[in-house]
Design goal:
single chain, 307 residues, alpha/beta, seven-stranded parallel sheet, two-stranded antiparallel ribbon, 9 strands, 42% helix, 16% strand, globular
């Protein structure tokens, strides 16, 4: 579906990969990884960022859990190394989160932030051996990352040069609404979505705080509500690019992440992605879905890209 999408002569350059069952086995042999790389390249696509399956090792669990977390990062880095050496991956990060809930974090915010940072530092040290950068995705369902302020505090506590923030426009919109962190809410509770000036001021507050950390970017839409399944309780509801209930002016609002305070392009990363993890298979099996997404990405590139 990715390879078949085309809009005015534009096609997708590649795919990001979630290294998780049932799609991809993180314990694949090097030969299996190369076969996957050949399959992707056969469609004329590259590979960008990788998602490390760290959820079996919550940072706020046991010492063994934290060791599992770091080991999953190591395996993801090795996966990326083989893809790089095989010629299909020239850019991208390893995506992580705390794998622990805001409720667990809130039991002892100070010490739990230290535990998350300690685990992330160990993972950064491993990633450094592979010349990889880690990106923590700001989703409100993960403890220590559930508000824009706690996200900054966690990144500052890690204090490693090879960690940054993965901004997803759907998830970060929820930061403004204070889900799971009402004390950090920016938009008023009676906010009228037709008043773009208030939304734009809020987006500027969040992006000014997190943009300096941002090293990976998901273009996305959100209708201002939350969606949860399993451990992804109360996280951003991704909407289709054409959803009439979407609250973002996607292409314009992407500029808050892609440009600095003076309007200059940051060029902090080499590719942008549309994350489809929340869409039903029925939606994803329609070619028009992919064409609409590609069209939105091209719109973002036309406004904020470079060549």
């Amino acid at each position: 579906m990715t390879a078949a999408a085309e809009v005015n002569g534009n096609k997708f350059d590649g795919v990001d990969l979630g290294l998780l069952d049932p799609h991809i086995n993180i314990d694949s042999s090097d030969d299996e990884i190369k076969r996957l790389a050949d399959k992707i390249a056969g469609y004329g696509l590259n590979v960008g960022s990788l998602v490390a399956p760290i959820w079996g090792g919550p940072t706020l669990g046991s010492d063994d859990d934290r060791k599992t977390f770091v080991e999953m990062v190591r395996k993801a880095c090795h996966f990326g190394k083989i893809l790089r050496e095989h010629g299909v991956r020239q850019y991208g990060v390893i995506r992580i989160d705390s794998a622990s809930s805001p409720e667990e974090w809130s039991k002892d915010p100070v010490n739990n932030t230290k535990l998350i940072a300690q685990t992330f530092r160990a993972a950064c040290d491993v990633a450094n051996d592979y010349d990889e950068k880690l990106a923590a995705e700001g989703e409100i369902c993960w403890g220590g990352m559930h508000s824009w302020k706690t996200m900054v505090e966690t990144l500052e506590a890690v204090d490693r040069p090879n960690i940054g923030f993965q901004a997803d426009m759907s998830h970060t919109l929820l930061y403004l609404l204070g889900y799971n962190a009402p004390e950090h809410r920016i938009l008023p509770k009676d906010y009228n979505w037709s008043d773009r000036s208030v939304l734009e001021a809020g987006l500027k507050t969040v992006t000014d705080a997190l943009r300096p950390w941002t090293i990976d970017f998901h273009v996305a839409q959100n209708d201002g509500t939350v969606h949860g399944t399993g451990s992804h309780d109360k996280t951003g509801r991704h909407c289709l690019a054409t959803d009439p209930n979407g609250k973002l002016d996607v292409a314009k609002d992407a500029g808050y992440w892609l440009r600095d305070q003076n309007g200059n392009l940051t060029k902090a990363f080499e590719h942008i992605c549309w994350d489809g993890c929340m869409f039903d298979n029925e939606v994803m099996l329609k070619q028009q879905t992919w064409n609409d997404i590609l069209a939105k990405l091209v719109e973002v590139r036309n406004l904020h890209g470079w060549s």
